[in-house]
Amino acid sequence: DWVLDTAFSSDSSHLVSVSRDRSMKLIEVATQRFVDNITSITPGALKGGLASVDRHPTRDELAVGGADGTPKLFLMHRPANKPRQIGDDFNLIRAMPSLPGRIFEVRYSPDGSKLVAVSSADGRGHMRVFATEDGKQLLSFDTETGGLFAADFSPDGTQIAVGGLSGTIWILNANDGTMVRDFVAVPLSPRTASTNQK
Fold first, then answer.
1. Are 110 and 132 in contact, with CB atoms under 8 Å apart?
2. Bigger pLDDT: 45 vs 55
3. Which of 130, 95, 98, 102 has the alpha carbon at shortest distance from 114?
4. Listed residue (31, 141, 152, 16) closest to 91, CA to CA
5. HSE (CB half, 13 Å, CA atoms) of 188?
6. Burial 159-172 (b: 16+ CB within 10 A, else e)
7. What is the rounded distance in angstroms from the CA atom of residue 149 to the CA atom of residue 90?
């Protein structure tokens, strides 16, 4: 089904894809060989399509989010001594507290210590920031002006930019969640009607 996001391994030898069919797949780039389903293959284990994946900045660990609203962290590679079995979810590191609605983006901070996720539900947008080591929620931001679909940390990790349906970009302090500034991504002004008549 539709591939909605991709991420390379730290050495670029492997590629991960997430898709609307609820799966996260690991592929060997050089041979284009399918290696593994990273997520559980148990029927019904996944509650909806996956929309976003990001790799930890220094480790082959993955953050993923999608229709079930729960950000999760996974190992990219299954240890050789752990053969896949129906019913297992061995690669799962932890699940974070759920956001309202569907998650549209997950992104690690530059040092990998935090994860931001954004979602949309019933005309509202939601952002949550979590500590990656224990899954604790650190920050939240909500808007009544429509869903949030995009988020990222600044390169120095001090700010978070989020945006969505309204066209507004919010810049937040990544440490305490305070608003730094907000602006419309593409401000528009009414065109002046031409008075020239032919």
1. no
2. 55
3. 130
4. 16
5. 4
6. bbbbbbebebebbb
7. 29
Q: Say if CB 162 and CB 177 are below 8 A apart.
A: no
Structure tokens belonging to residue 27: 């592929």
Nearest to 115 by CA among 138, 93, 92: 138
Enter the pTM of the model.
0.88
The mean pLDDT value for 66-78 works out to 94
Question: Which tens digit of pLDDT belongs to each residue from 104-151?
Answer: 999 999 999 999 999 999 999 999 999 999 999 999 999 999 999 999
Q: How far apart are CA 135 and CA 140, in angstroms?
A: 14
Token pair in block for residue 44? 């019904």
| Sheet of strand 92-95, all strands in order from the earlier edge strand to the far edge | 50-55, 61-66, 72-75, 92-95
Tokens of 110: 């530059």
Q: Which token pair is 150?
A: 């995009």
CA atoms of 183 and 194, how far apart (whole Å): 30
